[in-house]
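Batch job 17 of 40 flagged for manual review because the log was empty.
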Amino acid sequence: MKKLFVLSIAFVISNTIFAQSEKLITKLNAEICPCIEDAVKKNPKVGVMEVTQTCMVEAFKNNADEVGAVTDKFQSEAKLRKLGEKLGGNLAQTCPAFAALAVEQAGSLMKENDKNPFDETLYTTTDCKAFNSGKFVTLVSYMNGKVVPESDKSAYSLVSNNEWTDVTENGKYKSISTITKTDDCNLNLTLKSNTNPKFDSFLKVGAKMSITILGVDKKNPKIFYVLMTFNGMNIYQKIEKKA
């Protein structure tokens, strides 16, 4: 489940221009987060894009010289987008008010290109049973038609005995969900425990996610194409079974 959250935040923020250096990103977020918190206190239903852009504009004004010095080096749209993803991921990790608001509203923001990005001729739907147990890692994820960077390269998922466990930050944290099946290709998860404090603001016990195995790679039976849905958000993923 944690992947859905982190990935959604990266997309929500990725179309805005931000700074490159870790030092500047930290400095901007230290101003942006309190601004968002104040706005949410005044209006819990405030639009995530509206409040984020307003707070970022103010932070950029306060740090105009530093922001300008960095962004002048990255004039292409692709490079600026990557900078946006980097700042968005950092803000998602450090600002609970932003995280909760973005997850709540992300579903309605991500419908324009919400289509299966994978070539359906690459896989077959004949057998999903191999997905019902094992250790899995995500190879690539798409949201709203765009590839979203993986924020935790150590992360993996364990599936066994009707439980789904997401392991993050080199094994430090675990999120455990129970599994109920419609059939071998359709799973429903319900979160029963989470030890990662970064996810407390948006990932509550009882939260639900559905997983549809779209198919198994025709050339490599250890590769699965999957659709994950959480809080109205769709994530298309290519996943590899490691054990």
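Reviewer: the log was empty due to a logging misconfiguration, but the result itself is present. The first strand starts at residue 123 and ends at 124. Unflagging and moving on to job 18.
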